[in-house]
Amino acid sequence: MCKYNVLRKGEKKCTRFRPLSFEVPKPLFPVAGVPMLQHHIEACAKVPNMKEILLMGFYQPNEELNRFLLNAQQEFKISIRYLQEYAALGTGGGIYHFRDQIVSGSPEAFFVMNADVCSAFPLEEMLSFQKEHGEPNSFVILGTTANRKQSMNYGCIVENEETNEVLHYVEKPSTFVSDIINCGIYLFSPDIFQHIGGVFQKNQEEMLLEESTNGWHRAEAIRLEQDVFTALAGQGKLYVYKTLGFWSQIKSAGSAIYASRLYLNQYHKTHPERLATNKKGGPKISGNVYIHPTANIDPTATLGPNVSIGTGVTISAGVRVRESIVLHGANLQDHCCVLNSIVGWDSTVGKWARVEGTPSDPNPNDPLAKMDSETLSSLRSVA
């Protein structure tokens, strides 16, 4: 039996994703036509013997979140629940706080996935890898390879090249440690709670030495990466499965554009029905494009590559859109041009206007390059 827990990371502030996260919680922001979190859920639902999906975070549930959960349960025929943390507890504290919910039903294993990652999600491969490596109760980190400079912006993994055991783990080191980085997707057995519990007890003991009004919260605020993985490395319990598939973080508006490109390209294999095609009387489609059925698009418009058009969007004559996400209710008037941008909800781009953001893709000449921190044009209302 497997349970999946999708951790919703960084919801309290999400400052790098503003102003987009003012309208919807970041995990529900549409990437390649569907909420960011739906890509995770679709991957989970494909794994045999999946029993339940738990979403965890500090975000206050609202009507939009509840509607998303209801629709997802109906579409994927699986139980999906949201568990709200009383405070931001970190990547380890959240699952430890709700450990009784996770182990109910006696699962053999469960996945933990950060919500702000874009991936092919090789979950079944990770399960097979776990069975072939180490003990049945070993833990697996999904890893990928980055270039030397960028690797220092992530959790770095030193592995035994023969066994794939994690020998050393350092979160965002100041000097080069390894080009294998942590993807924020993990496969655990319930034994992981013994190790997280050890950190919790240590935190409690340290709190007793301090006068603090929020000691319990501080004791439960646990980071999987720094507090747990660093201690587990080299003990024969932690392994890394290196993926050759695509992976990227989604920390800002610019990285959402790049993630949309990766998912749109994956649709050729997973959801070809989501990709628009050139049809008589329709707009010109160049490359991978998603168009919501409720969008109204003039046949003289040109869209693509890497374009996602949301619900109720109006695109008028002669409009050109490339490398962009156009959100619900936006109005792109005659002959405007939108490049490398996110057009906000119910925004208007006026006639003959040109809106162009700065491309922020990884270096195309470096196959190991990842996203850097960047800014990107995000429109609220343009007349």
UniProtKB/TrEMBL annotation:
Biased composition, class Polar residues, residue ranges: 374-383
Give the transmembrane ranges: none
Extract the coiled-coil ranges from the record.
Answer: none
| Domain (Nucleotidyl transferase) ranges | 14-206
Domain Mannose-1-phosphate guanyltransferase C-terminal: start-end pairs: 285-357
* Residue numbers spanned by region Disordered: 358-383
Q: Matching InterPro entries, A to Z?
A: GMPPB_C, Mannose-1P_guanyltransferase, NTP_transferase_dom, Nucleotide-diphossugar_trans
Superkingdom, taxonomy of origin: Eukaryota
Family statement:
Belongs to the transferase hexapeptide repeat family.
The name on file for this protein is: Nucleotidyl transferase domain-containing protein
Which organism does this record belong to?
A: Gouania willdenowi
